[in-house]
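Risk mitigation, structural track. In case the binding assays with pyridoxal-5'-phosphate fail to produce interpretable data, a predicted complex structure has been prepared as a fallback.
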Amino acid sequence: MPDALRHKVLLDEDEMPTRWYNILHDLPTPPPPPLHPGTGQPVGPDDLSALFPMDLIAQEVSTEQYIDIPAEVLDVYKLWRPSPLFRAHRLEKALGTPARIYYKYEGVSPAGSHKPNTAVPQAYYNAKAGIRKLTTETGAGQWGTSLAFACAQFDLECEIWQVRASYDAKPYRKIMMETFGGTVHPSPSDLTEAGRAMLASDPDSPGSLGLAISEAVEVAAQDPTVNYALGSVLNHVLLHQTIIGEEALLQLAKIGEVVDLIVGCTGGGSNFGGLTFPFLREKLAAGGAGPVIRAVEPASCPSLTQGTYAYDFGDVAGLTPLLKMHTLGHDFIPDPIHAGGLRYHGMSPLISHLYDQGLIEAEARTQKDCFAAGVLFARTEGIVPAPEPTHALAAAVEEAIRCVETGEEKVILTALCGHGHLDLPAYDAYLRGDLVDHTWDDDELQESVARALTRLPSIPG
Ligand SMILES: *Cc1c(COP(=O)(O)O)cnc(C)c1O
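Fallback model:
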């Protein structure tokens, strides 16, 4: 039984894990590989080398159980890592629950979210390979901010396509990216073929993450000194994020606590995978005994709970390899909900595979419900959460309320993967009663996904 008064569990810098955990080593069956859209064959290193450095390509396909974190990366991590694990005593008290709620707080990073955990190694490996500039997309602005910061650490240029809707609505994110040294364009832009095509058909297009990816990939593919960086979805991104779960395991061991339920929000799946994979390793090793692991996604962009598990493109223009994932169709444009980081049509192939294999659960939630949990959390714990992790908080709160009825002393863990200081207009809208909820009629959604998938090149073989 842990010390009831303890609020934070901290690790010293020299206790920080020095390896990332690669779940590909331990999966009962491997996930289906990415395919080349032209040949239908699994993509090889050469197909990816126009966009990524060899070290990251090797990590993408590695089946080594652990990968050492380079010393240069550990040095930058130490600016904010190890991150604190908190026990939410005041939230528990407000709920009157016997459950114990823990949150691993990633808002202490330079960008205010978990994304620098992968931005820093991605910039490092690209700089090591002699690359001059990285391009990327950003939705809510979190990833662009993280990559701009990371590029500044390794003397790389950084060029970012920010989804138009968020470029207009979140001027502070743009200023932050520029402060870290990044160059920011609204997407669609007139700088790329993909952007010009969209502007020609809709000059007022609000853009989407899928389109911004097309723009950033197009520019990187044309210049050998320029590479592209993706902030979620891919195996190497989830790998880098496992530092979150490795630290959490050490912190919980310090106080002798054993977790019953892990809930995390999923956009592309990186903070969720980062927190949960090390716990899943322990669970697989224990023959399945261990915490229930549940992903929480927005009801307006429900790739896991209502999407189709199929090969699809990662972007609108179809420039990426085909990924087997839970998808809403690569041209799906989700409602402009405030949790911008969760508005992606697909889901990481690794997370999709785990879901398909029944190793994790998933649920979807509407945004008003989530903001209610976010406000309760802010008033009790003193941190305004980013809109994305309020999805997981809403699930944690619901579970803790269930424990009031059953008297169960359930131990719940979540990743508070970012703070919401630059998302305050979303809280304003919630507090004024201006938020609307959107859910999808299942038939309507299935039809739109099926339509998008018929527009794919037919996969030979
Ligand atoms: C980007 C982002 C997300 C969604 O991305 P994942 O890869 O699913 O983690 C969630 N929360 C925050 C704070 C983000 O910045």
